[in-house]
Amino acid sequence: MSFLPEGVCLLLAGAQQQDTSIVERSDVERGPAKTRRIASDPMVTVSGILRFKTAAAYAAYRAWFYSAYGANAGAGWWSWIDPRTATTRQVRFIPGSMGALTPLTGRYAISQQSVGFEYLETPESLGLNRTYNGDLERVYSFDPDRAFGTAPYNNGQLPVTYSRISGRKGGTAQVFNFGYVDPGSNSAQQGLYTSAEMQPAWEPNKTYVISIYMATGSETAHIGRGVRLRWNTEPAFVEALLNPPMSSSFQRYAWRVRWGVAVEGNGALFITTDEGIPRFGAIAFDDLAVTEGAELLPYLPPEPSP
């Protein structure tokens, strides 16, 4: 879908977002009013001022607004980047919401117009955690020391044992304890792999934020080490948002990832230490989150498994 033409922007000053109610209220003769939910997702209305930076920009906007390939006179959906979440939303103009064009300089060289548009706030656009076991509480029935949907990432082929410890905020965390081997000249990483049992498949041309809490024992060789993502299919873009040196306390690590046409198969995810000789010792993992969109959100609990 199309975006606003170049030279046209929504001013943040004075802009407003308002949810429409999805609850119906019925008064009764006595007692509190009855309420019931009448829709699964709310419509959100956005009101503000469109600024046209040049007369040519306004002319392009008018052509785009009435074109069947643009806003289709207000009847069509178009793409808008929400400055609050940095996500792309599909929006449409609200009938009757457009005000008069107001010039700010002579001959309308710069002008502006009040508008309103709306979008449907779906669970995906709310930034919900896509994982089924992101808190790593569910374990395999055949291996109660290993969180469901996880396995150690261990391309150095170190011996590994599994265990559970207290989580960062109650519950339990997953621990992979990598045993010592003669490192030789091997360059390897240790970390966490998640399978298709952990989250839905990645979708092409979408942006996600991945975050996890990690810690390592104070006696291990992982202290001070960096953390990274690894892939069999490289995303179009990866940006580290939080990547402190590893310590014995839980710290949050986060990355913004944008996929192109090709995506990693089966929703797989590899979170590992940086490259170097294999290092022995325990690494603990807790509260994995994968959210759609570009904004790093506070940790959210995982979605129910399908």
Structural topology:
Elements: E1 8-10, E2 16-19, E3 23-26, E4 34-37, E5 43-52, H1 55-66, E6 78-82, E7 87-93, E8 102-103, E9 111-120, E10 139-140, E11 143-147, E12 150-154, E13 160-166, E14 172-178, E15 190-194, E16 207-216, E17 227-230, E18 237-242, E19 251-258, E20 269-273, E21 281-292
Antiparallel strand pairs: 1-5, 2-5, 3-4, 5-9, 6-7, 7-9, 8-9, 10-11, 12-15, 13-14, 14-21, 15-20, 16-19, 16-21, 17-20, 18-19
Describe this protein's structure.
The chain is mostly beta strands. It has two domains: 8-120, Elongation Factor Tu (Ef-tu), domain 3, CATH 2.40.30; 139-292, Galactose-binding domain-like (Jelly Rolls, Sandwich). The protein contains one helix and 21 strands. The chain has one helix at 55-66; strands at residues 8-10, 16-19, 23-26, 34-37, 43-52, 78-82, 87-93, 102-103, 111-120, 139-140, 143-147, 150-154, 160-166, 172-178, 190-194, 207-216, 227-230, 237-242, 251-258, 269-273, 281-292. Strands 1, 2, 5, 6, 7, 8 and 9 form a seven-stranded antiparallel beta sheet that branches. A six-stranded antiparallel beta sheet has the order 13-14-21-16-19-18, with no helix packed on it. The longest helix has 12 residues, at 55-66. The radius of gyration is 25 Å and the shape is elongated. 27% of the residues are buried. The mean pLDDT is 88.
